[in-house]
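Task 17 of the worksheet. Students: predict the tertiary structure of the chain below and write it out as structure tokens. Keep your answer in the requested format; marks are given for formatting as well as content.
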Amino acid sequence: MATLNHQIDIDAPAARIWELLTTRVGLQSWWNGTVAIASGDSWRFSGDELESPVTLKVVEEEPDRELEWLCVKGDPNWENTLVLWSLEKLEQGCRVSLAHRDWRLPEAELAAENTRWGERLVKLRAMAQPRDEMPYNDQDLSAWT
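Model answer:
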């Protein structure tokens, strides 16, 4: 069995990242597909990259630090896999680590899934970090014309 590992630094407080990992609106902001509540402690994720929707049950959580999901139903490639999130506070922002364990896919398919998780984490970072408005200077317009 294989584990997919990712790590990304995000310039946002742990509480903001936690919100994106534990609320439907937050999850929907970075997941490519649909997120719904499956029950009080489970999420239902669907999307084009899944053979069928998956139900991820929250099996452990320590707010702003660690979160663990177990896939209890759905896409056969995901079933019985564990998704472990760890948040480590940095001097500025947070380091987010993801380990998706117990994959039984062939190497080529693992590579594709690994890429998808990387894309999800980049999107998570984009949703978590504050967005600075680009300064507007009408003098700059003449440089492009």
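Marker's comment: The first strand starts at residue 2 and ends at 10. The first helix runs from residue 14 to 22.
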